[in-house]
Specification:
The complex is a heterodimer of chains A (about 110) and B (about 120). With about 110 residues, chain A is mainly β. The termini of chain A are far apart. Chain A is globular, with a radius of gyration of 13 Å. In chain A, the strands form two sheets. In chain A, strands 2, 4, 5, 9, 10 and 11 form a six-stranded mixed β-sheet that branches. In chain A, strands 1-3-8-7-6 form a five-stranded antiparallel β-sheet, with no helix packed on it. In chain A, about 0% of the residues lie in helices and about 60% in strands. By secondary structure, chain B is mainly beta. The termini of chain B are far apart. The radius of gyration of chain B is 13 Å and the shape is globular. The chains are: A mainly beta (about 110), B mainly beta (about 120). Chains A and B meet through strand 4, strand 5, strand 9 and strand 10 of A and strand 4, strand 5, strand 9, helix 1 and strand 10 of B.
Chain lengths: ~110, ~120
């Protein structure tokens, strides 16, 4: 069965304090690794898709990387508006399987 | 097109009542998905439609749950005889066939509270 595990569950950062989130996956026939951002009371919002080991993608203060077993989301010099839950999901054919997410809180 | 719309945004119901949620996907998306999310967890897959055909149902979807997508447009998710354990956020998402490239677009969800 496909499994996606995220760590840590929660991360409290000071504004400007860079950190990384981890997503490990066990998926047969992985077709893509997705990162979403979710704000309280809202649906997930697409951030990145990674397709092959070694690939990296960047968006503002976020950078996602992929290895054969894990993906990392690096947050560089975060701001309070980066506070959210970050979800990782693995695509197998047509279905996304999600991890439980990492809730990031950035204090000013 | 303003994205995936879900209605209602919030629903409070008494245990044992039936509820129905509606999802309007992005018009050109032929794939539609329902997920359920409880507090502190990621979304869990419930069911998937390609056009009007329901192609997969999760084991999470008991006999009390039914989903339809008539004419391959909007979709409804009905829960009969609601239980307190049904309290969750129900998320609808849609996608093009090239999920690998474009991923899903999610709606804002319907939060169900069973009292």
């Amino acid at each position: 069965e496909d499994q996606v595990t995220q760590s840590p569950e929660a991360l409290r950062l000071q504004e400007g304090e860079s950190s990384s989130l981890n997503c490990s996956y066990t998926v047969s026939g992985l077709r893509g690794l997705f990162w979403y951002r979710q704000d309280p009371g809202k649906g997930p919002e697409f951030l990145f898709t990674l397709y092959s080991a070694g690939e990296e993608k960047e968006k503002e203060r976020l950078k996602a990387t992929l290895t054969k077993k894990e993906s990392f989301l690096h947050i560089t010099a975060p701001k309070p508006e980066d506070s959210a839950t970050y979800l990782c999901a693995a695509l197998n054919d047509y279905k996304l399987s999600f991890g439980a997410g990492t809730t990031v809180t950035v204090r000013a | 097109d303003t994205g995936v719309s879900q209605d209602p945004r919030h629903k409070i119901t008494k245990r044992g009542q039936n509820v129905t949620f509606r999802c309007d996907p992005i018009s050109e998306h032929n794939r539609l998905y329902w997920y359920r999310q409880t507090l502190g967890q990621g979304p869990e897959f419930l069911t998937y439609f390609q056009n009007e055909a329901q192609l997969e149902k999760s084991r999470l979807l008991s006999d009390r749950f039914s989903a339809e997508r008539p004419k391959g447009s909007f979709s409804t998710l009905e829960i009969q005889r609601t239980e307190q354990g049904d309290s969750a956020m129900y998320l609808c998402a849609s996608s093009l066939a090239e999920v690998r490239i474009y991923g899903y677009t999610f709606g804002s969800g319907t939060r169900l509270t069973v009292v």
